[in-house]
Design a protein that fits this description.
This protein starts with a strand and ends with a helix. Helix 2 packs across helix 3. It has a two-stranded antiparallel ribbon with strand order 1-2. By secondary structure, the protein is mainly alpha-helical. The protein contains four helices and two strands; from the N terminus they run ββαααα. The protein has a domain of about 45 residues.
Length: about 100
Amino acid sequence: MTNPVKKTKKNYNLPGPGPGRPKGSKNKFTDLKNAFLEAFEELNGTEGLVKWAKMNNRNRAQFYQMITKMLPSNVSLDHTGNVDTKMTINVVHIKEDKQNEHNAK
């Protein structure tokens, strides 16, 4: 199967999906990332995140789900010699009992 050829405004035939974001155009991902960082700071930053996660077990479980998505999916390492490394990540789903849920409200 061959890659489709996409014609650009300058009529160049390029293999693959195209030239990408035009030079000088706004990077929407960076804007979104900055918006979230600003909101994080306005919501009291790390202290606010910790307070939210400690509110109840449901928030804590959501926090751990979010943090696992931020971890690298694969790790590569160039080394010489012996390296002993072990990384363990346990994700535990916690069922919240009705009493804790009622107290959090």
